[in-house]
Amino acid sequence: PPAFPPGHYHLLGAATLKYWAMGYWTYMTLQEYNLLVSYELGDLGQAREDVLKILRALGDQNPTVRRTAARGLLGVRTALDPRGVTMELRKRYSKDPWSFGTTIKWIPLDLWVPSEMEAMREGVMKLRDRIGRRERWAMVVEKRRYGRHNKMEIINELAGLIEGKVDLKAPEKVLRVELVGGYAGLAVLEPREVFSTRKPHA
Q: Which uninterrupted H or E stretch holds 168?
C-alpha cells in the first residue's frame, strides 16, 4: 500500500484515507491466503459455503474464506497443506463430483508480493530453486484487475530468472503468477497440484 508518515493522517481527505486503508487491508488479507479458488459468477455466498464445507470435511475446522477484489475469485487460508488439499480434491471428485458445488479451480500459493515488476522478480528469485536445472517447466500468468503489463511482458521479464528447459506441452513444474490488482500470488507447482472441476483428470 502507499506509504504515509504516521501522525499525518489528518492531512488526508476522507476519500484518500479510505482508499489507503482499503489498500492496506487488501494487502494484509492477501498475504494470509495460501489458496485461490475460482467459482461461477453470481454465486459468491454459495461458493464460500462450498469451500468451507470441503475444507472442513478434509480436516480444517476453521479456514478463512473471503472474497477478493476480483469477481469470481475467493482467497482462502487453510491450516492444511494447500498442495495436499488439491491432491485430496482429485480423489474426492472421482467419488462425489457434486460436492464441489460452484467452485471451479483451486490453486495453491507460496507467497505474495506487490505487482510491480521488480517485486515480482524478487519473488520469483526466492522460488526458482524449486525448479531443477534439468526439469522441464512452463509459466502461467493470470491477470485480474491488473493492467500495468501484458502477459508477454511479464513472461519475458521473469522467464530469464529460471534455468531449465521451457516445455509448454508437458512441463514437470509450473511457475504460476496470479495477479489480483496491486499484488501477485506466486507458486511453483507440479501440474497435478492445481485442481479444476472442468479438467478433473488433467
A: none
Contacts of 18 (CB under 8 A, 6+ apart): none
For 147-187, write each residue's pLDDT tens digit. Answer: 889 999 999 999 999 998 999 999 999 999 999 988 999 99
Q: How does pLDDT run across 52-61, given as a tens digit for each residue?
A: 999 999 999 9
Backbone angles phi, psi at 142, to 5 degrees: -115, 125
Residues 6+ away with beta carbon under 8 Å from 146 = 115, 179, 180, 181, 182
**Shortest CA distance to 113 belongs to which of 36, 186, 174, 176?**
186
Dist CA 46 CA 95 (whole Å): 21
Residue 171: what residue type?
A: P
Cα angle, residue 163 at apex, residues 160 and 169 outer, rounded to 5°: 90
Strands 173-180 and 136-144: parallel
Question: What gap in Å lies between CA 81 and CA 129, rounded to an integer?
Answer: 20
Integer-rounded Cα Rg, in Å, for the chain is 18
What pLDDT, on the 0 to 100 scale, is given for residue 29?
67
At CA 169, angle to CA 161 and CA 122, rounded to 5?
A: 20
pLDDT at 164: 87
Distance between CA atoms of residues 194 and 86, nearest Å: 6
b/e code 49-78 from CB counts within 10 Å (16+ = b): ebbbebbeeeebeebbbebbbbebbbbbbb
